[in-house]
Write a structure and sequence with these properties.
The protein has about 300 residues and is of the alpha/beta class. Helix content is about 40%, strand content about 15%. It has an 8-stranded parallel sheet. Bound molecules: 3-hydroxy-3-methylglutaryl-coenzyme A (HMG) and magnesium ion.
Length: about 300
């Protein structure tokens, strides 16, 4: 038994493109985001205000944010790692600020160059400043289901980080299977524990499909009453730790499954496929099953 309404957050323009080896031309990103804005989606993560040397693929975040056509029914969000990032995000009036850190000490250090303990006060101040600017705040927790350096992650660590993020005012938590190692039984086990402490409405799931388990994981999360999921058009993204592997859970595959189950998302599948076909000209491989089927039919 599951809810018949699910909210999907499109992360392709950020999580998808940050893992592409080539930078997609800015004008193409803008055109593509405009297509996504017309798909019925309520949320698009358009870029990252991180250091351009760390993620050069998204160094045009300011220009993208300025030039896209904003649909009033869409929340336009971006990743923000620190106060410099927030300044840049506020300059272009981003609607929602997405904080991020890792449940793994090693991954956090490699990703944002700080220990978890040193990251939290930075995020707290970004959260406070975002609220002052009337922005909603999202908090990503990475490597919840496993880390490329440390392996298994203790769920108590995840709970402690989630608790701190909520205390600093974060409106929603996104639990990341950053490298796509989660299996359905593990998702059940982790959610069982997390839901003892946090209301299901505060949780979103961010699955990567590296090993083909993302949809199965979604199904389990639905059973636990979770109705917020992140996904990327065409399964963009790949995985920096597994060359050739699938990327984020594909929005088109997620829509295929949910819509046929009678779940309402408000998103038009046809528009998402068109957006996937558009961005395909600029990226290496789209891994979604919908795109593979489409190509085999051509
Ligand atoms: P750092 O080098 O430690 O930064 O990087 P710093 O504070 O020491 O500053 C060094 C210089 O960078 C300074 O300039 C700053 O002004 C500048 P200088 O004085 O030397 O000329 N700087 C900035 N410039 C532009 N924008 C900024 C910014 N901040 C500092 N925001 C930092 C620390 C966090 C900035 C860096 O490590 C970084 O940008 N990391 C981002 C990495 C990233 O984006 N990773 C991928 C996203 S996370 C993810 O994908 C997981 C997720 O999808 C969920 C899941 O799947 O689990 C979300
Ligand atoms: Mg991700």
């Amino acid at each position: 038994d599951f809810s018949n309404k699910v909210s999907i957050k499109e992360v392709g323009p950020r999580d998808g493109l940050q893992n592409e080896s080539e930078m997609v031309p800015t004008d193409a990103k803008i055109e593509w985001i405009n297509m996504l804005s017309d798909s019925g989606t309520s949320y698009i993560e358009i870029s990252s205000f991180v250091h351009p040397k760390w993620i050069p693929q998204l160094k045009d975040a300011t220009e993208v944010a300025k030039k896209i056509k904003r649909n009033p029914n869409v929340t336009y969000a971006a990743l923000v790692p620190n106060s410099t990032g927030l300044e840049r995000a506020l300059e272009v009036n981003i609607d929602e600020v997405c904080l991020f850190l890792s449940a793994s000490e090693t991954h956090n250090k490699k990703n944002i160059n700080k220990s978890i303990a040193d990251t939290l006060p930075v995020l707290e101040s970004v959260s406070t400043e975002s609220k002052k600017a009337n922005k909603t705040v999202r908090g990503y927790v990475s490597t919840v289901f496993g880390c490329p350096y440390e392996g298994d992650i203790d769920t108590d660590k995840v709970i402690s980080i989630c608790d701190k993020l909520l205390t600093m005012g974060v409106d929603e938590l996104s639990l990341g299977d950053t490298i796509g190692v989660a299996d359905p039984a593990q998702v059940a086990k982790v959610l069982e524990e997390l839901l003892r402490y946090f209301p299901k409405e505060k949780l979103a799931m961010h699955f990567h499909n590296t090993r083909g388990t993302a949809l199965a994981n979604v199904l389990v999360a639905l059973d636990y009453g979770i109705t917020n999921f992140d996904s990327a058009v065409g399964g963009l993204g790949g995985c920096p730790y597994a060359k050739g592997a699938s990327g984020n859970l594909a929005t088109d595959d997620l829509l295929y499954m949910l819509h046929r189950m009678g779940v309402v998302t408000g998103i038009n599948e046809k528009n998402i496929i068109e957006a996937a076909l558009y961005i395909e000209k600029y990226v290496k491989n789209l891994s979604s099953n919908q795109m593979k089927i489409l190509k085999s039919e051509r």
